[in-house]
Amino acid sequence: MMTQPHPPETSKTLRAPIIAGVFIFLATLIASIPASAISLFADKSGGALSYAEARGTIWKGELSSVSVGGIALGDVGFRLAPLSLLRLSPEMTLSANGAVRGSGTVSLGGERASLRNVKADINLATVAVRGLLGEPAQGEARLDIERLDFSLKDGCRQASGSLWTNALDGPTKRYNLPPLPLSGRVACEGDKLAVTLAGENVQMAADLRLLLNPALTYEVTATARASEENIASALRVFGFEDDNGALTYGSAGVLTGAGS
User: Fold this and answer.
1) Does the global pTM surpass 0.70?
2) For a tag on the chain, would you pick the N or C end, based on fewer CB atoms within 10 A?
């Protein structure tokens, strides 16, 4: 009986290095994908995402003059977590140093978006077309968002964090009033994202409440209490109405981008 010859030992010893070499080659190839490949996603965003130039690789790089939904963010650096792609929920750590200055982690999956550990200062005059009380947008906003999960299907799933803004300082200065900074928090109310802000000075107190539902329609309610009639009269010019000793204003619309 003839015996089958054994494979040469050299083939076994070479197999592992060949597999390792192919793996290293593919990993290097993927790791070197240029950041400009993001244009594939930008083209499919319907104009919602645009930028002037991409530098680095798709895993770590920077986009200059970024605009999202009509909101100018300035230059944005990014780092993509490779393992997040296996979950079909790409996760990026972003850092910006323009109209928006700060950092945070963003993950996307289907119709869901999640923000984590977002700390940012925002120049409202640059990112917003329209401000409060008929004035052009001005001042700053500061965000400290611990977690925000929102989807177009289920709405708000989890939200916690704080906000601060001096957006009302311009309108109050126009009427010779002291500054009126507002601060508050974000939270989920059912499937709606709720943003509440409040502030006061010696002549006026104000509360602002925004609700955003899964269809991206929003409701804004503002309540003001003025200590002087001339201040109340000025608020009525802006559309505020008397309501049980206070002045209230409400509006609704669809969130589409800056100035909505």
Assistant:
1) yes
2) N
Quick one: tokens of 221?
């309610």
For 185-208, how does the pLDDT look when each residue is reduced to its tens digit (9 = 90+)? 999 999 999 999 999 998 899 999
Q: What's the rounded Cα separation, in Å, for the pair 67 and 228? A: 42
Q: Distance of CA 107 to CAs 78, 95, 147, 155, Å?
A: 12, 14, 11, 16
The string of pLDDT tens digits covering residues 136-162 is: 678 899 999 999 999 888 899 999 999
Residues 6+ positions from 127 with CB-CB distance below 8 Å: 71, 72, 73, 99, 100, 137, 258
Q: How far apart are CA 78 and CA 187, in angstroms?
A: 27
CB 92 within 8 A of CB 107: yes
pLDDT, tens digit, 9 for 90 and up, residues 210-233 = 999 988 888 989 999 988 888 888
CA–CA separation, 24 vs 67, rounded Å? 36
Indicate if the pLDDT at residue 164 is higher than 90: yes
Distance (Å, rounded) from C-alpha 144 to C-alpha 165? 12
- What span, in angstroms and rounded, lies between the C-alpha atoms of 235 and 177? 13
